[in-house]
Amino acid sequence: DEDMTLDYAGFSTFDTLVRAQRVFEVEQALLITQAWHLPRALFIADALGLEARGCSAPSRPVAGLWRLQAREWIARVATVGDLYLWGREPYFLGPLEPLDISSPAWPQLVEPAPE
Q: Domain DUF218: where (predicted)?
């Protein structure tokens, strides 16, 4: 069984999530990314109808943080355009490659740990 896969044609968050849905036939996803990126990734997943939960990875100090923040702000604006204005498709969709994901792990992955 594959519970995780790499998307070699996911050139953006939008592309990766569209491909997860259409190419890999993913219906539920656990998104693990940086805290600053997670809200946009979850927003895109929700807009596409994917059931997604998120987990932020630990961050390290970044040189040029202001550039990263500016880039993320631009990406958030572009995301609205991709989803609702331009009808953008992924740069490369590719052939259907359904994943054999064992869904029983889903509740264990997304439920908060008991305190």
A: 3-74
